[in-house]
């Protein structure tokens, strides 16, 4: 998956600013993402769902939005993306799972 890290033009302001001001750091970060993505045998949709789950668990609204947006671009069903938030409820708690569900719905509705 070559698109594991957004291009600088597609990033939120803070990350885009880092990419513009420190391109060597951004390039190293993007290379790390590509290397991690290619290091195993997990298929593309499963990788996206795992990355979404990690974003949900870390309560990163920006990362949730990023992975939902990419998932939708990759034709992952919105209900499948929502299921990730529901699966998180027993592990991270009801309020955090519900917050993630609202973040997913920001883009999936």
Automatic annotation (TrEMBL):
It comes from the Archaea. Keywords: Plasmid. The keyword Protease does not apply. SUPFAM superfamilies: AhpD-like. GO terms for molecular function: peroxiredoxin activity. Pfam families: CMD. The keyword Cytoplasm does not apply. This is Carboxymuconolactone decarboxylase.
């Amino acid at each position: 998956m070559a698109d594991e890290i957004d291009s600088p033009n597609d990033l939120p302001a803070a990350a885009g600013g880092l990419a513009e001001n420190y391109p060597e750091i951004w390039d190293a970060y993007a290379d790390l993402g590509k290397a991690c993505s290619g290091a195993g045998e997990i298929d593309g949709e499963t990788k996206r769902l795992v990355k979404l789950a990690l974003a949900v668990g870390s309560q990163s609204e920006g990362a949730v939005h990023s992975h939902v947006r990419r998932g939708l671009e990759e034709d992952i069903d919105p209900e499948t993306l929502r299921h990730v938030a529901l699966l998180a409820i027993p592990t991270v708690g009801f309020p955090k799972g519900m917050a993630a569900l609202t973040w997913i719905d920001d883009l999936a509705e």
